[in-house]
Specification:
By secondary structure, the protein is α/β, with parallel strands linked by helices. The protein has two domains: 242 residues, Peroxisomal Thiolase, Chain A, domain 1; 152 residues, Peroxisomal Thiolase, Chain A, domain 1 (3-Layer(aba) Sandwich). The chain contains 14 helices and 15 strands. The strands form three sheets. A ten-stranded mixed sheet has the order 5-4-6-8-1-9-15-14-10-11, with helices on both faces. The longest helix is centred in the first third of the chain and has 17 residues. The radius of gyration is 20 Å and the shape is globular. The relative contact order is 0.18.
Length: 412
């Protein structure tokens, strides 16, 4: 069955090293990391990726006070995406606009802060905020965007662990093809460094990054990698059916060509390379492509010893019969792991390769782990490519969820 073509027409983002696509991309090409250290309650200072966007650009002080950090990130990214796309919501039927945001977790921040706050008052619950419930519901991020923009169509979040950014985009494409909406704001968002629980959890798993220089703490594929740098961020796209985008003369960043989502069903945290390989293969088949068509792979690799190896095993297995290797990179050395935002944000940093044919590198690789030595890795310095027509974006998460999204250069 011939599917409706779905295209990307706007990008809004905030990352630890940039608050616009242009700034983000420039820093990826010049090796600028956004990782610093923050004070984590009960745990001292740890590396983290924090964003520096202006929350008051699109919100009033009262809204920021009542809302959440992830809500502020979402509003900023959604507004930037709309502005970039040239869509004027005032001329649109807002009941036909959908908001689909991938998240890793939500509610931890407000709950931790409220419990800590009442602990200062002998746990008297009269000091508990009456804003707690709307702040902690799972659909908070999308709901805050709908309130800010007056969008009355479907607005909800999709919990898919660290595969969520990809899944938000996949879901938007499906809803547009089903005719449920005419315009979608989709992607992924995260406020993870605001909660000490996630730091404590990764530390207890021996998976929390440590390094004397925080900018070198996230080091995918390097022999000395020792864990995840927890980061916040967001990336939201304006997604449309091709005929609608063309009718208004929109610029088009790329076309959603294919995707697949599956589950390992084998372990709570340890990835399964066989299932990851299956996810990649099925996404390529869904796009009507072969392994020869893939020009660039953005890896999910989180800088954990075993996780990076497992993904490299999966990629090597899928592409072992190819005539020459695709280019392969990773973004987390620059920004850490932005959890629910990772898939969407890392894709955005690679989309300009369609225009400039430059592959941004994987940084902080001083000694490449021989078990991660997959042909095609772009390490420490950008590389000029002869062709970038198809980008494959991997994003995997806990409890074994895998997602692969394929974006191709738009050709009318």
């Amino acid at each position: 069955m011939k599917q409706t073509r779905i295209v990307i027409t706007g990008i809004g983002l905030t990352a630890p090293n940039g608050n616009s696509l242009a700034e983000f991309r420039q820093n990826l090409l010049t090796g600028v990391s956004g990782v610093t250290t923050i004070e984590v309650r009960y745990m001292g200072r740890h590396p983290a990726g924090m964003c520096t966007f202006d929350p008051l650009k699109y919100q009033k002080k009262k809204d920021v006070r009542i809302g959440t950090r992830v809500g502020g990130i979402s509003i900023y990214c959604a507004r930037e995406a709309l502005a970039d796309s040239g869509v004027d919501l005032a001329t649109r039927d807002k009941s036909r606009v959908g908001i689909y945001l991938g998240v890793t977790e939500h509610g931890n921040v407000e709950t931790e802060n409220e419990v800590y706050n009442i602990s200062q008052f002998k746990y008297d619950t009269k000091f508990w905020s009456h804003h707690h419930n709307p702040r902690t519901v799972a659909n908070n991020a999308a709901g805050e965007v709908s309130l800010n923009l007056g969008i009355t169509g479907p607005a909800y979040t999709i919990g898919a662990a660290c595969a969520a950014g990809n899944v938000g985009l996949i879901h938007a494409a499906q809803m547009l093809r089903l005719g449920e909406v005419d315009l979608a704001l989709a992607g992924g968002v995260s406020e993870s460094p605001q909660t000490f629980g996630i730091f404590a959890g990764f530390k207890s798993q021996n998976a929390l990054a440590a390094h004397e220089d925080p900018k070198k703490a996230s080091r995918p594929f390097d022999e000395a990698r020792n864990g995840i740098v927890i980061s916040e961020g967001g990336c939201i796209y304006t997604i449309e059916r091709l005929e609608d985008a063309q009718a208004r003369g929109a610029k088009i960043y790329g076309e959603i060509a294919g995707y697949h989502v599956n589950s390992d069903a084998t372990d709570y945290v340890l990835p399964n390379p066989e299932r990851q390989a299956e996810c990649i293969r099925k996404a390529i088949a869904n796009a009507g492509m072969t392994i020869e068509d893939i020009d660039l792979i953005n890896t999910h690799a989180t800088s954990t010893p075993q996780g990076d190896i497992q993904e490299c095993v999966a990629i090597a297995e899928v592409f072992k019969g190819r005539r020459s290797p695709p280019h392969i990179n990773n973004t987390k050395g620059f920004i850490g792991h932005t959890m629910g935002a990772a898939g969407a944000l890392e894709l955005a940093g690679n989309l300009p390769s369609f225009d400039d044919l430059i592959i941004h590198p994987t940084i902080n690789v001083d000694n490449l782990d021989h078990q991660c030595n997959v042909p095609g890795l772009v390490i420490n310095q950008p590389k000029k490519a002869t062709r970038v027509d198809v980008i494959l974006n991997n994003s995997f998460g806990m409890l074994g969820i895998n997602s692969t999204l394929i974006i191709k250069r738009f050709v009318a």
